[in-house]
Amino acid sequence: MREFDVGIVGAGLAGSISATILARAGHRVAIIDPNDTYPDEFRCEKLDFDQIGILRKAGIGDAVLAVATPDRSVWVSRLGHVVEKRASDQLGIDYGTLVNTLRAEFPASVTFIRGKVTAVANSPDRQTITLASGESISVRLVLMASGLSNSLRQSLDMARKDLSVCHSISFGFDVEHAAGDAFPFRALTHFGEHPRSRISYLTLFPIGSRMRANLFLYRPLDDPWLRELRASPEAVLKTEMPRLEALAGPLRILGPVKMRPIDLYATSNYRQPGIVLLGDAFGTACPAAGTGAQKAVIDVDRLCNEYVSRWLATPGMGVEKIASYYDDPVKVASDKRSLARAYRARSMATDQSLFWWAARWASVALGLARWARHGVHDAWHRVRHLFDAPASARSPEPRA
Ligand SMILES: Cc1cc2nc3c(=O)[nH]c(=O)nc-3n(C[C@H](O)[C@H](O)[C@H](O)COP(=O)(O)OP(=O)(O)OC[C@H]3O[C@@H](n4cnc5c(N)ncnc54)[C@H](O)[C@@H]3O)c2cc1C
Prior knowledge:
By secondary structure, this protein is an alpha/beta fold. Helices cover about 40% and strands about 30% of the residues. The longest helix has about 35 residues, at about 355-390.
């Protein structure tokens, strides 16, 4: 049986970053995934600069930056009106490209095993990971980063606790200006124009030379409206977001229109010896709240930079060691924030009570105030720069 310090189940976002951090810390790491190359799946397509900070700490930030597309500036429209135009530091990237870039950065000491994990036998000492091929490997610690897949958790007596089934539905597609013109913005976030539409927002952002669109909304899976949207997306968007065309121009949607419903769930009975859960394997986030990648990256940062080396430095892998990661205040706050934002985003988009109407108008006022403040700040900066500049820079060019 091959032996390692750490066995990582799943080479997605969380697993791949963990493998690099732990191998660079000098640990013997095996990472197991059924696919050599991460497939073209519709998942998170935008990163924030905060996440790049954590990737930089692991020495892999620049590799991701090299294949991502910065949006640089964004227009934000609420209730159908542009309320803000501001600088932005989000990065557009296909999820497959992101994960495959992270995998390409594995240090040579990482052992990648292609295969599906079918069982994990855990104990306060060593753990055994069994693969579908029949091979077993022995490790001191298992990192379960297997995403949405439930079967392994069940085999360990960990139950999935549904918090909100079909909490939101995400759509992803490419768009272009129907008249062939350039869009007047680099990126746009267009919030639902009326809670009746049950749309959280449509976001347009560049990935390479494409304009990508993500649409997040709240409807039951059997709603015939969803079929209509997939069949004639331009017409449905025109009806539900009548002011969009005035901002973006007429849109042509380029197939395929990908759809993913998301359940919000947590996991119970996860405090077990020898194994830790991270990313979606621990609990999901709502894509409309945009916290899934951040939550996964924070899990990795806390676990791999704060705890694993200390745990491996002493014998045993009892539940008291494992518990310190689950009780980590930064992780706990990140999970709480992610759930709170998921419910808040849903209420902002769909709740017709007076409170949430007030909240929607408050967000309009806040956006306008921020825009005005940036405008004043920008004007003040220009005036100051004018006086700071050397005299030669201020005087007109001498005429020939
Ligand atoms: C449609 C959609 C849109 C989203 N949009 C956003 C967004 O805009 N912003 C945001 O922050 N988040 C978003 N998210 C959430 C974000 O994508 C996830 O939270 C994040 O990618 C989770 O990463 P992970 O590493 O936990 O899981 P994954 O990246 O799914 O990795 C799991 C890995 O485990 C492997 N695996 C599974 N089972 C086994 C097994 N038995 N043996 C071996 N390997 C196994 C899989 O092959 C996979 O490689 C979105 C999610 C979806 C679905």
